[in-house]
Design a protein that fits this description.
alpha/beta; twelve-stranded parallel β-sheet; two-stranded parallel sheet
Length: 434
């Protein structure tokens, strides 16, 4: 793969408040409009400096990757929306910009307007990284709604290109238009944002809207409880048939969420990695998941992460017995669960994974220790003789009924509110759109 022409201020720790502060550092950007990747993370950029930077960025028509993570540390609450607005307005018309990283910026609800306006309108977007932004469920739902609007915009552009493709010329402008119009969102990383269950209806709709193109979804550590997980899986991710990586670690599944995952996981025939560690699957839920994986719908699965999920010996046996249907599985993480380190099922699993490492045929290197076998089992829970809790279908049915009853209220209060500021900014950005 060819190396992209890079401009970087990464990790310099610069405090850039004014145009005169930033000007010496962006001389190369001013001198050339051919940069394809910029890295600005690890600095702090104020409003006036952002405005000056934006006037240069808008000329970078070849830009493909923009890393704007961690660029507002120490900024006041009122500074960030204005600074972000300048930067995203400049990036919006760039026809080749497919990857945007805005992680580790303290947006919260206060900064959702420029973010939503950009995400709903930037048709070339294929990879979005938005982690540790303090969104909360309300702003999180607005981000999801923006992504749903983006899906409609991308679909419309693909349709228009298909209808007019035969009459399009072969010049450079046509190539740039094709790049934008043919885009589909492939990667969504939105972790550590307190999305919670209240925004899951909106996120399910957004993921379903982008299902055709989605390849990687990571929503770790978002405080999503079992009812929200069930909605996300059944009404959103289930439609993403080409999904390759799903990471939902450090949310709360219980048996309800694990059942939903077991129902839909077989539909992801391209799945390579599944992360559900620290999700409290429950012994019964984990067993249902492993039994589902053993049905043959996930023959390409290579990595399974199920640490601290109350997996017991029965669940481990179900996973070991399903190995004929998981011929590519090379790494299993199950530390922090409830089985004995000498369990026969564990030994069977270790043996099978070792055979695959010896055989090879994977893209990872053989000497990458953490890419193979079982993880270190140094924190297993003590196995007790207590009987497993009886299955409580009543509790699950009640929980799902309550979810249905509250969906409308949540959608009205969180996901469907129309913010006049957002609409105004979206209109403003739209005038500079593609």
């Amino acid at each position: 793969m060819a190396t992209l022409k890079l401009f970087t201020l990464e990790g310099k720790g610069l405090k850039l408040d004014t145009e005169s502060d930033i000007d010496p550092h962006i001389k190369d950007l001013k001198d050339s409009n051919d940069f394809e990747e910029i890295r600005l993370q690890g600095n702090t950029i104020g409003v006036d400096a952002s405005k000056a930077l934006a006037s240069v960025l808008e000329k970078q028509k070849n830009l493909q990757i923009a890393n704007l993570a961690d660029i507002f540390t120490g900024r006041l609450l009122h500074e960030i929306p204005a600074a972000l607005s300048f930067l995203l307005t400049a990036l919006l018309p760039l026809p080749r910009l497919h990857t945007v990283n805005l992680s580790d910026n303290a947006f919260g609800f206060n900064t959702h307007a420029p973010l939503v306006a950009f995400l709903s309108a930037h048709a070339p977007l294929r990879h979005l990284y938005l982690t540790n932004n303090g969104l909360g469920p309300e702003a999180g739902a607005k981000v999801a709604d923006a992504l749903a609007a983006l899906a409609a915009k991308q679909q419309q552009q693909r349709k228009e290109e298909g209808e007019g493709g035969s009459s399009t010329g072969g010049g450079g402008g046509a190539a740039a238009a094709t790049t934008a119009a043919a885009a589909q969102l492939e990667t969504i990383v939105c972790g550590r944002n307190r999305l919670e269950s209240g925004s899951m209806s909106a996120w399910a709709a957004a993921l379903a809207a982008h299902a055709a193109g989605l390849r990687e979804v990571r929503l770790v550590q978002n405080g999503i409880r079992q009812e929200g997980i069930a909605v996300l899986l059944r009404h959103g991710l289930a439609a993403a048939k080409g999904l390759r990586v799903l990471d939902l670690q450090d949310n709360t599944f219980t048996t309800i969420g694990a059942r939903a995952l077991a129902e839909v996981v077989g539909g992801w025939g391209e799945l390579r990695e599944l992360g559900v560690s620290d999700c409290l699957l429950s012994a019964r839920g984990a067993r249902k998941l492993f039994e589902a994986l053993g049905k043959g719908g996930n023959r390409g699965l290579e990595v399974l992460k199920c640490q601290y999920d109350e997996v017991d010996a029965k669940g481990l046996r179900a996973l070991a017995d399903g190995q004929e249907k998981l011929p590519r599985l090379r790494r299993v993480e199950v530390n922090g669960n409830k089985f004995d380190e000498e369990d026969p099922a564990l030994e069977d699993l270790k043996e099978k994974l070792a055979e695959r490492k010896e055989k090879g045929g994977y893209e990872v290197e053989v000497d990458e220790e953490e890419a193979w076998g079982i993880d270190e089992l140094d924190d297993l829970e003590e196995v007790s003789d207590e009987e497993e809790e009886p299955e409580d279908e009543e509790v699950e049915a009640k929980a799902e009924k309550e979810l249905q009853q509250t969906d409308e209220a949540e959608n009205e209060n969180v996901a469907q509110d129309k913010d006049a500021d957002i609409d105004a900014l979206a209109d403003k950005l739209g005038k500079t759109g593609l």
